[in-house]
Design a protein that fits this description.
Blueprint: E1 21-25, H1 33-43, E2 47-52, E3 55-56, E4 62-63, H2 67-77, E5 80-85, H3 101-104, H4 120-147, E6 155-159, H5 171-180, H6 189-193, H7 196-219, H8 221-229, E7 234-240, E8 244-248, E9 251-255, H9 263-278, E10 283-287, H10 309-315, H11 320-331, H12 339-350, H13 353-356, H14 370-384, H15 394-415, E11 421-423, H16 426-435
Parallel strand pairs: 1-2, 1-6, 2-5, 6-7, 7-10, 10-11
Antiparallel strand pairs: 3-4, 8-9
Helix pairs in contact: 1-15, 4-7, 7-9, 10-16, 11-15, 12-14, 15-16
């Protein structure tokens, strides 16, 4: 496992500007990490080129976006989208006989999930066919992207693909038990992960979260060569997660959300960047702090380590901007509840002996326990209930702070990349925010 490597000093401002290009590999949905780098690139005058994962037609076949869907997606991105479906994974991919993993699991029931037995020969055929489909689409995407890169431009590829829970009905009840279950509804993540359904989930996570980055590097080798020959440079950034350093008992300390089942795929993503780096390719994975997004909603409790960011902002300089953030957070709380209340309860959770067994970096990703899950979920619910409106919460304010800072840091650090993997802990997020 790669050594923990947090970024401690702000990188110099990147030289990107008008004529340079940000190519986003993956599709934006709602608000999340990738919005930060897209908005920062636009602010610096870069051209933004995006992608789509496509959509599934009523017959299950993958299709490009319709003109209306394309217009909506481009408005969200603020740039042009190359309308080639880049859906990754193989859960819906038919094998040589036309049977997909989803077809195999049509009759699977949540109450007998651990008795499921899959045809792994068929699964492997689906996986290989999924890879072939994706790499062919990626080659077409790269060819179109190259047409949009001016001579002499610098290019930054941002890999934003993640996830990979199979889109099969039996999975969501199980995922809810793994991530949100207490008491009789609790399901051991280790038990699930070691099952046949867990094995399939792991394989699809790898394909979507990690292997797409490897394929992107290969598909754009020609672009690297031609951009370099014209006097420009090409860099790659990807969004990782491998725990995060936050203030616990007054010191920045590594901690992690548990259970984070995509974690093994995120390590694979780091390894892909390291392999590329050794070949002279400027590729960096940035392990980002926990935030609350549409895609992280399944991971109730992930936001508990977000609250101490308020303390980090004060420690790293404070000032008018930090005072505004704090005031905005306070305004969202119920009468009688203060920011200090949230910080005390989050700090108590993070420093609790219950969580000490999950703070060993070398053993990550950790599996859950019934005690840990109950403690996390109860504390998360308690703090979320302190907001006046469940749709307007403190975590959303802090999440915006994080993804805006992450976008700036990734863009600047990619100009003269210094390592294949960095952690963006709360100290560097706070420094970037305070610096403006």
């Amino acid at each position: 496992m790669i050594a923990y490597n947090p970024m401690r000093e702000l990188p110099a401002t990147a030289g990107y500007g008008k004529g340079d290009v940000l190519v986003v590999c993956g599709e934006l949905f709602g608000r999340g990490y990738a919005n930060g780098i897209v908005e920062e690139a636009r602010a610096r005058g870069m051209t933004v080129v995006g992608a789509t994962v496509g959509r599934r037609a009523s017959d299950g076949k993958l299709r490009p976006l319709t003109s209306a869907e394309l217009s909506e997606a481009e408005a969200l991105l603020g740039g042009r989208i190359i309308n080639v479906p880049l859906e990754a994974g193989f859960d819906l991919e038919p094998d040589d006989d036309g049977t997909s993993p989803a077809d195999q699991l049509k009759r699977a029931k949540p109450d007998t999930w651990n008795q499921v037995r899959l045809n792994w020969r068929s699964i492997e055929q689906s996986r290989q066919r999924g890879v072939a489909r994706f790499t062919a689409a990626l080659a077409a995407f790269a060819a179109e992207a190259e047409k949009l890169i001016p001579a002499g431009a610098n290019v930054l590829f941002a890999h934003i693909m993640a996830g990979g829970i199979p889109r099969i009905r039996v999975y969501m009840p199980l995922m809810n038990r793994v991530f949100k279950g207490q008491g009789e509804r609790f399901l051991s993540s280790e038990e699930f992960w070691n099952s046949e359904l867990g094995r399939l989930c792991s394989m699809n996570f790898n394909e979507v979260t990690a292997d797409t980055f490897t394929h992107l590097l290969a598909a754009t080798a020609g672009i690297r060569s031609r951009v370099s020959a014209a006097g420009g440079a090409v860099s790659y950034v990807a969004y990782g997660y491998h725990g995060c350093g936050v203030l616990i008992n007054g010191a920045y300390t590594w901690q992690s959300f548990t259970p984070y089942l995509p974690g093994w795929a995120k390590i694979r993503l780091e390894e892909a960047a390291m392999a590329a780096w050794e070949q002279g390719v400027r590729a960096t994975v940035f392990n980002c702090p926990e935030i609350q997004t549409n895609s992280s909603a399944l991971f109730l409790g992930v936001e508990l380590s977000l609250y101490p960011l308020l303390e980090a902002l004060e420690r790293e300089g404070g000032g008018p901007r930090v005072a505004m953030i704090r005031a905005e957070c306070q305004a969202l709380l119920k009468e009688g509840v203060t920011v200090e209340t949230l910080l005390a309860r989050a700090g108590d959770y993070l420093a609790s002996p219950v969580m000490s067994g999950f703070s060993r970096y070398g053993e990550w990703p950790h599996h859950n326990t019934a005690e840990q899950a109950s403690f996390m979920l109860e504390r998360a619910t308690e703090l979320l209930d302190q907001n006046r409106d469940p749709k307007e919460i403190v975590c959303a304010v802090l999440s915006r702070v994080v993804f805006n800072a992450v976008g700036q840091l990734m863009l600047d650090a990619s100009w003269e990349p210094a390592a294949p993997v960095f952690w963006l802990d709360h100290d560097i997020i706070a420094k970037r925010t305070v610096a403006g």
